[in-house]
C-alpha cells in the first residue's frame, strides 16, 4: 500500500499559480493627494482587491458609504482619525464630531489598528498629523476600487483645487455615496 499525500497530479496540473508581491512592488499611482500601490487586483482574486495607501498629512477622504462593498483597513505606519459607524445625525460639513446612538465616536488609529466596514456603514479616514500615514486597504468585491482609484487619482493629479463635480460623478459610478467633502488640508480646520 502506498501513502498518498496532497491532491492528485491531475488536479495540480490545472491549478493556478499563487501571487507573491515583494516589498516595494506593485503598480503605484501617485498624486500630491495620495499614493496607492495595487498589491492584489481582480485579475488575481475573486474575493478582494488589496492596496497599500500612503495618506499624506492633511488628507481627509470624507465620510462616505457603499451599498455593496465591504472594506478592511489596517494601519501600518503613522496615525489616522477613523470613523466606522452610523451617526445619530449625518452632518454634511465634517464627520470628526459624529457620535453613534450607542456613544461611539471617531478614534485615532495607530499602527496595528484594524477597521472593518460592512456594506451600508458610514466610514472615513483623515491624516490630521504632520507626517504621512500608511495603511493596508482591502475592498471586496474587486475590481471596482481599482478602477475608482485610477480615475480619482487622474482627477486629483490635474493640479489646483479638486474638481468636486467630477469626483461626485465618479463616486456615484462606483457605489460611493459621499456624505462629507474630500479635503486636502484637514489639519488647518
Structural class: alpha+beta
Shape: globular
Largest sheet: 6 strands, antiparallel
Radius of gyration, CA atoms, in whole angstroms: 19 Å
Assign a percent range to the helix content: 10-25%
DSSP E strands, number? 11
The first-to-last residue Cα distance is 74 Å
Count of helical stretches: 3
Reading side by side through the largest sheet, how are the strands ordered?
1-2-3-10-5-8
Mean pLDDT: 89
Question: Topology as H/E string?
Answer: HEEEEEEEEEEHHE
So what's the oligomer here?
single chain
**What percent of residues are in strands?**
25-35%
Low-pLDDT segments: none
Detailed description of the structure:
The chain is built from three helices and eleven strands. With 189 residues, it is α+β, with helices and mostly antiparallel strands. The radius of gyration is 19 Å and the shape is globular. The strands form three sheets. The protein has a six-stranded antiparallel beta sheet, covered by helices on one side. The longest helix is centred in the C-terminal third of the chain and has 13 residues, at 144-156. It is 15% helix and 28% strand.
Amino acid at each position: 500500500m502506498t501513502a498518498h499525500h496532497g491532491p492528485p497530479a491531475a488536479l495540480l496540473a490545472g491549478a493556478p499559480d499563487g501571487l507573491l508581491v515583494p516589498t516595494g512592488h506593485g503598480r503605484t499611482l501617485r498624486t500630491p493627494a495620495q499614493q496607492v500601490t495595487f498589491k492584489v487586483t481582480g485579475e488575481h482574486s475573486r474575493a478582494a482587491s488589496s492596496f497599500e495607501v500612503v495618506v499624506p498629512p492633511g488628507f481627509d477622504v470624507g465620510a462616505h458609504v457603499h451599498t455593496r462593498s465591504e472594506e478592511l483597513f489596517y494601519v501600518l505606519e503613522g496615525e489616522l482619525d477613523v470613523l466606522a459607524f452610523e451617526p445619530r445625525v449625518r452632518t454634511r460639513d465634517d464627520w470628526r464630531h459624529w457620535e453613534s446612538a450607542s456613544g461611539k465616536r471617531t478614534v485615532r488609529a495607530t499602527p496595528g489598528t484594524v477597521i472593518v466596514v460592512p456594506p451600508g456603514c458610514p466610514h472615513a479616514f483623515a491624516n490630521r498629523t504632520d507626517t504621512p500615514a500608511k495603511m493596508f486597504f482591502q475592498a471586496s468585491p474587486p475590481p471596482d476600487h481599482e478602477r475608482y482609484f485610477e480615475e480619482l487619482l487622474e482627477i486629483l493629479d490635474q493640479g489646483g483645487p479638486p474638481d468636486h463635480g467630477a469626483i461626485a460623478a465618479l463616486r456615484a459610478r462606483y457605489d460611493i455615496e459621499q456624505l462629507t467633502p474630500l479635503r486636502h488640508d484637514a489639519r488647518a480646520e
